[in-house]
Design goal:
By secondary structure, the protein is of the alpha+beta class. It is built from 2 helices and 10 strands; from the N terminus they run E-H-E-E-E-E-E-H-E-E-E-E. The protein is globular.
Amino acid sequence: MIGIDIVDIKDPLLHLRTADHLRFIEAEGDQYPEHIDPILLYWIVWSAKEAVFKSRRQLISFDPKLISVVFSSDLHFSSKHLSGIVETAPNYVVATAAQSSTPLIHQIWMSHQKAHSQKIIREKIIDYFKPLKISFTLDKNQLPLLCVNEEKEFPISLTHHGNYMAFCIEKHEVLGA
């Protein structure tokens, strides 16, 4: 169970959010760090909740009010049996979530080509794992799996927003990482 979400906070189409907007995504039991700019805090909470949602790999609608997250002061968070971390950069916020103590591989790329981001991110992942023979297939819920050397399949989480794209996968020996 792994999930990733990225938000391009400089995307001109992104609606401005304030601390007041947290009420639209707040779940019972949520606990947020207090020392963070309220506009940035909204996207930190949103990305953490979406990473948790994606880690479940279910075909249900995303409702952030149904996902409770508890943050520590260093942007690590927990949500039921999952843990994660949010990383902030001047232009984006990215969150990864997994079962506790699951080692992860994740990579972020900048891309100004918005038209075919699903195709582009898959091409970048294939290149990232060279010389392995990488392809993609889908699980029973039509969610992506990474196929390695036509033998092993691993759940993979993909994300893209604005100028950024990223993936997250559990660390495995066969992946060479």
